[in-house]
Specification:
Structural class of chain A: mainly alpha
Oligomer: homodimer
Number of domains of chain A: 3
Largest interface: A-B, 114 and 114 residues
Number of strands of chain A: 6
Order of helices and strands of chain A: HHHHHHHHHHEHEEHHEHEEHHHHHHHH
Largest sheet of chain A: 3 strands, mixed
CATH superfamily of the largest domain in chain A: SLC41 divalent cation transporters, integral membrane domain
Radius of gyration of chain A: 30 Å
Shape of chain A: elongated
Helix content of chain A: 55-70%
Chain lengths: ~425, ~425
């Protein structure tokens, strides 16, 4: 790229599938990325934007003139269009809409009624519908005329009020004779999805039922559109990544190759939050300064208890967060789960209390305080592991009650608790013995 | 369930789809789970086993007699069958195989040639193949006779040596006239997958191309089978979960409701590894015991620097691990990424060094050592943030060279580094000033 063979690169870019161009842009540092983007043909920009992650897409969209953007977005599927337009500032959005054809405008407005993270926001409007009383032959001729949208595996059967009666798979259309009526092939046991259903529940249904597509209906059972597996795959990927990234204080839409300054600004916030929590822990140590003055060994042993409590708590927290997002952990079994995790923490607490206590005793056996140090650290270990695990098991449920994201705030709150309790119990026990 | 209405529960269980029964079993504590499993009808056990996660499935399979298992597994798709049988101990495997029909036995043996995490291990053998010179009418009659397997969106066209020529979608079969030849509808630009391709690359291709299915071929281009999106969704889910769970020292197949003892045993290992690393950090503090004796304030400030370095490093580590698994981070751009992350760490290092230094100065302003404490902690902060971020950016690449899993071992190694460097720099700078 640096060698300046622009013509050659432009040709290659415009022969690659849009998803590959998007992948290339996502894998490029900012300077190369902007250069590559300029080499893309205008009529392919819409398709490529569609495959880009939110942050990079918004970056490019912000630079485009509204009429240019409207032109680039022509021909996109309506759910993808709504995704892109839904994130624009009001004024740009109105300008882009004004540059679009009336038909497209109506479609986008219909799609934007539903929030992005619901079934309505995921759905496409390109359903093919037929009536129950027509023959396979008529359907075939109709499809030949109209064409089939991508990833269509079923067509839908509706009554005169657009209410969904069921689905007919392409497979059954092919394997039946021409004179058969659609209603004889009708599968009326098809999984229908309410437009207001949250996207993650939609994903769970698709995963559990191995669906390729599903019809979306309103409260009255009228067919609104369909959701296809390729959109659901994105939801599954994003949801699973969300937990991973949030636990490190990152956003799943974060661009790996974002410029230094914007990365630094975002990370600074998370470091600042962490500083506040560790200052609380430092204050706790401050309470016991006089004890440390007497027994300096405490300063050496100090990091062990909070660290072990943090690790044990984080394991439980991760397990419960994953359990909730898979739908395994629900109100009915959470009490059992908390009791089980407490059982695990008692066993490990005692095990590692004995191990660390023994180790401490022999490490500081030259000191007269060695037995008391061993007992202090052992006792603190048991308490902190139980507290950490209890916090790990209950925090996700509590945070969700307050509509907070357990993956984002759970880890910070947890380690604050295990740090404070860890320092307080170790130094507290020691103070009881030595002061 | 406790009320003993077994008949009622049994009826409900056997009316639910197998995937829902599997979900119910996964969400139940061990006692209820074993009870529910006993109430499932034998002929449904195979389907349900197929939907269960590895750990719970193995638990049930271990309890089943080989003939019983062979009977339960009848009718499963061959890739699923191979998954289950591939994990059995040799002796049980041979017994189960002996109880199966000869045809099934051959299919399983063919599927077990390829490791589970390759395209060959994911593929199904239920492809429908036709020759190029037949008409749509003939194909339709053939399909009517033979039936179409689930989630079929394309049939494949092969030559007389079984070499793949291309695919014909069901959609194009429906929308074309009966007398058209298959070769006229042939898409010869179909994405073919080599049987030896790793499963995560298969998943990336499916995601990027929005595929529903793809043909699997051997080195000579002969059609071996096909991969369908439902199997790929499982790969995507597992891969994304793998990073999340590994970073907490858990296995993505871990059962949330495992019994207390088996959970405690597994977690103990991770806590033991963590104890070793924190003991290393404690040894570093021990080196500077005499300095702490002179300035006890150091014991209070001690946790701040390692904590901030650990957080900054973990953010980078998580970003890079995700980038690698998405295929964004490759050899060509890793140098740019490391430089960028170092830039971020320098900015944040200086920012938080000034903040923490100022804070320390005013916190301990009554002490004569306050200015020197502020300088020590600020200097340590800059060094540790840079070291932490550098380790976070380079560790995943180094660990992969040694075939180690960065998500599993990366976090432990990283925090050991940030703990050691954090304590060493803070206490080291302080010692230079005060001793």
């Amino acid at each position: 790229l640096d060698s300046g063979m622009f013509v050659h690169v432009r040709m290659m870019l415009n022969e690659m599938p849009p998803s590959d161009v998007a992948h290339l842009l996502e894998s490029s540092p900012p300077r190369a990325r902007n250069l590559l983007w300029k080499l893309v043909n205008v009529e392919r920009e819409g398709d490529i934007l569609n495959y880009l992650n939110d942050e990079i897409r918004n970056h490019f969209v912000d630079q485009m003139a509204p009429e240019h953007l409207a032109q680039a977005l022509e021909g996109l599927e309506v759910d993808d269009l709504a995704d892109i337009l839904g994130e624009l500032p009001e004024s740009v959005y109105l300008e882009v809409m004004a540059s679009m054809s009336e038909q497209d405008r109506h479609r986008v407005e219909a799609a934007l009624i539903f929030p992005e993270d619901t079934a309505g926001g995921l759905m496409n409007l390109d359903t093919i519908t037929v009536r129950p009383k027509v023959t396979v032959d008529v359907v075939s001729r109709y499809l030949r005329m109209k064409g089939l949208p991508d990833t269509t595996d079923s067509i839908y059967v509706v009554d005169t009020h657009d209410r969904l009666l069921g689905a007919v798979s392409l497979a059954s259309l092919i394997t039946s004779r021409q004179e058969v009526l659609v209603e004889e092939l009708l599968n009326d046991n098809v999984e229908t999805i309410l437009a207001t259903m949250p996207a993650n529940e939609v994903a769970q249904i698709f995963e559990r039922r191995d669906l390729l597509s599903a019809p979306v209906v309103d409260e009255e059972g009228r067919l609104l559109g369909r959701i296809t597996i390729d959109d659901v795959v994105d939801v599954i990927r994003e949801e699973a990544e969300h937990s991973l990234m949030s636990m490190a204080g990152l956003d799943e839409a974060d661009d790996t190759f974002a410029p230094v300054w914007s990365s630094a600004r975002r990370r600074a916030i998370w470091l600042g939050i962490n500083l506040l929590t560790v200052l609380v822990a430092a204050q706790v140590i401050g309470i016991f300064e006089s004890t440390i003055q007497v027994v300096t060994a405490l300063a050496i042993l100090q990091p062990i208890v909070p660290s072990m409590g943090g690790v044990a708590g984080t394991q439980t927290l991760t397990l419960v967060i994953r359990g909730i997002s898979l739908g395994h952990v629900v109100a009915g079994n959470s009490r059992w789960l908390i009791m089980k995790e407490l059982g695990v923490s008692v066993i490990n607490g005692i095990l590692w209390a004995v191990a660390v206590g023994t180790l401490t005793y022999f490490w500081f056996q030259d000191l007269p305080q060695a037995p008391m140090l061993a007992i202090s650290i052992g006792g603190a270990m048991v308490v902190n592991l139980i507290v950490g695990v209890f916090a790990g098991a209950t925090l996700p449920m509590i945070l969700r009650k307050f509509n907070m994201d357990p993956a984002l705030s759970g880890g910070v709150i947890l380690t604050t608790i295990t740090d404070v309790v860890g320092f307080f119990t170790l130094l507290g026990f020691a103070t009881l013995f030595f002061v």
